[in-house]
Predict the structure.
Amino acid sequence: MTDTQKQDRVLIFDTTLRDGEQSPGATMTHDEKLEIAELLDDMGVDVIEAGFPIASEGDFAAVKEIAQRSKNSVICGLARANFKDIDRCFEAVKLAAKPRIHTFIGTSPLHRAIPNLTMDEMADRIHETVTHARNLCDNVQWSPMDATRTEADYLCRVVEIAIKAGATTINIPDTVGYTYPRESADIIKMLLERVPGADTITFATHCHNDLGMATANALAAVEAGARQIECTINGLGERAGNTALEEVVMALRVRNDILPFRTEIDTTKIMNLSRRVASVSGFPVQFNKAIVGKNAFLHESGIHQDGVLKNVETFEIMRPEDIGLTAKNIAMGKHSGRAALRSKMKELGFDLADNQLNDLFVRFKALADRKKEIYDDDLVALVHDHAVQAEADTLHVKRLRVVCGTDGPQEAELTMLIDGVEHSIDATGDGPVDAAFNAVKMLWPHKARLQLYQVHAVTEGTDAQATVSVRVEEDGRIATGQSADTDTVVASVKAYVNALNRLIVRREKGGSDKAEVSYKDH
Ligand code: KIV
Ligand code: ZN
């Protein structure tokens, strides 16, 4: 056994699909949720919080299918402190190899006032609901929401009740991102010292990033005795988000000298997951974001570049490969063959079936005709672009021409297939993207509102591919679309049409993306 293997294990609980997806506009489709869950399971995440089953039919169906398909991870669903929520949650997770029910109630004075329960009434409710959950499932997590603003004595009292009722994990949420590392540690220490039975369960830490301290607060809780960190990919989550998985995992790895804890995360899968979550959620990663930001491993200044060339450790505390970032070498050229593409894709973590490879090869050649140098990121964008486009195709962009000039308005000539029938139109707008979007709207009238439009260059250079994310909303239904192309306007229109195609699917399925119940509705 190596020294690291002997270290205390910290469980990684990923809530990208629940707390992350709860952030306004980050709604993912059913298939996207399945894909992200599979990637999380493959990466070695111990617990996946797959959703809030009572919130909507869509949430229920996603949690259920994730549970059925799960391999190694525990699959957890969220439930408020009532029997109906808990039953529905168990119904969704019960087919997982390892199911977990996570039930919670707000215990701070402000949160107790919402259901208008006295301290004693709330204590009774906790006892009844945790007992009920435990009667259904051996693995029960309980959370006193807003724990960091709950009176210390009351927090000890309710944690003891939950442990006696059978909770196997007690999670301490810093719901509003209010705590500070020393306080985060002190709360865990206090619970371990004062609560009978505290040594028989696992304490978890769940931090929000409102004051930018979520990672520090989570690590402080671990030093004090917490052995489960709740986090999300890219720190996705309501308001300023949650603790970022990549930050805590890499901190535990890089500073293992002072944080002697181990996780089972395969860190080389981090970058791919980060890209996928950014793409499907429509929430881009800020350039200077720790670990996964575009600039996190870039050395622009002469002094830095010189130092790194002589010895990478002068300015790098971890290697890009550790998180799955391959060297930004030119990956492939116009003359590269199918075998080279297959081996490159394998190196990038994509094990493609023959038909997928053939399809990618055609699109790769088309890109190579337009772009001199094809980088790894270009290939990843091509794979992701296709995964997105393949889902539904009522609307299809056939041809687009835009006329730009310093004197507006700009013009767009668009030909689209609508249910297989060709339609063309000319439109004007304030810029080429606006003109092209207007053309789409004229050909296929709709009242969906554009909530987000975002462009990113995949690589450097003026011939770089642009990846575009679009989010639209109609009657409470939200759909996102993405596309990549060397032409930004083409990528924009394809992303827009992709979002509309997904909206059509959602219209057909009915229901709304807005949770049908509130977290506060106990
Ligand atoms: O932040 C929070 O308190 C939560 C709970 C539901 C655990 O997400
Ligand atoms: Zn939360």
Observations:
- The longest strand covers residues 395-403.
- The two ends are 48 Å apart (CA to CA).
